[in-house]
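stuck on this one:
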Amino acid sequence: MAVGLALSFFSLERTPLQAALGAAAGGLGLLLVGLIYRLIKKVEGMGLGDVKMLAMLGAFLGPSGIVLTVLLASLSGSLVGLALIARGRGGLATRLPFGVFLAGGGVATYFFGAFLLEHYRSLWP
């Protein structure tokens, strides 16, 4: 996270404020989701490693990159979970490591995020 924040001072794509907002939004947003899940279900649903990872990704990708990263990570995680259920190798209670999907979503956002967001925006008049 510190490297992402430091590099933002030399970035042409995001300002240090955007990097800080991305880190805060990613870390605090996922922490809040984990706390709410724990309050409702009375069990841990997410480790703090995922929270730290999303905060780090936020420092590199900014706030809009965090939204796309979480969307892509959730979509890919859901598809893997559904595939496991369809093959009889998992169920609704099967735990999947979200960090793997966050990493994939972050890489996809870094390389294709601008294209995906521009394409999405072009769908709406």
About this structure: The mean pLDDT is 94.
